[in-house]
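Hello forum,

I keep getting stuck at the same step: I have a sequence, I want structure tokens, and every attempt I make locally crashes halfway through. Rather than fight my setup again tonight, could one of you with a working pipeline run this one for me? It's a single chain of 379 residues.
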Amino acid sequence: MLPLKGITVVSIEQAVAAPFASRQLADLGARVIKVERPEVGDFARNYDDTVQGMSSFFTWLNRSKESAALDLKDDESRAFLTSMLSKADVFLHNLAPGAVDRLGFQSDELRERFPQLITCSISGYGESGSYMNKKAYDLLIQCEAGAVSVTGTKETPSKTGISIADISAGMYAFSGVLSAIIARGQTGKGTHLEISMLETLGEWMGYPMYYEGIGGKKLNRTGASHASIFPYGPFPTEDRTIFIGIQNNREWQVFCEQILEDDTLYSDSRFLDNAQRVENQEILRSIIEQKLQTVPAAEVIEKLDRAKIANANLNDMKAFKDHPQLKDRNRWTQVDSPVGLVDALLPPINSKDFDVVMKPIPKVGEHTESLREEFTITK
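Reply #2:
Ran it on my machine without issues. Output:
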């Protein structure tokens, strides 16, 4: 079984946000027709050439799609797109605000002609407001949403290493479309979804927003450590750095007794609860490091696991690729592409009752002619 079998998605998409949403729909069985510019295609195709000559971004985001290369300034191409939309369930796009409207594909008009259609726009700041036409890229949204202000070290505010603004927008577009499909089953009609990157990342910023923006207490940047819990973060051992997370006083007591082997510490007045441990963290950090830096990491992790204290290795991407848990669960497969077979991580939605789709990554315009034969132009 494929949960979205029979659902057709037409997506005018580029970069990350919309392609991430549509690829997840394709993973669950939806037919995704990706509309690209002729010859050059989605500009994410050329971000880099690290995957056997293909872009890492494009490889990640575009399996299981059909590619139609259309010049939407051309009347015939617009008529062809209209024909596809007449038989589609979802119309997704992440062009600049107003761009799709100027091409003649306004949401209200489309849904008046095709009542079943679900339309979804993804933009930086939404379809209204004083920021509506402001250019929006992932880093800039991270700045505007406050993510950069709470990420990095005390001296250096930093962006995250992945495109969290784009990814959050893609995730909410994905869940929004699924919700709209369910709603359509009750009403028989489509709807319009408006996804703002600022607002989706703003939802992810809830904890620091309540802590600092509403609570009024300064949330300091702490690098890889936690801003409001201690011990929680990196600690050096004899041979490498590991990460430890203490969530409550019971775990703190176990940590003192079984890892630090000092049962006086948990009753020390400076470390009685998390607030005091945070306040006195430099003293406590020195005590912990003095104990752990003489012990090999593997031994510390074994003790932490035995004590049921949360911990992690600091993996690079090669170590993640070879992660034993992913191997144990058979999470890697391969998909075909214009450059041959490439490794791909299976989608994270798992069920014994339905399958996922892992079809090839398309060339620019690979399916244009077959799609033209399938979809007769609507006059």
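DSSP finds 16 helices and eleven strands in the chain. If your local run keeps crashing, start a new thread with the error log.
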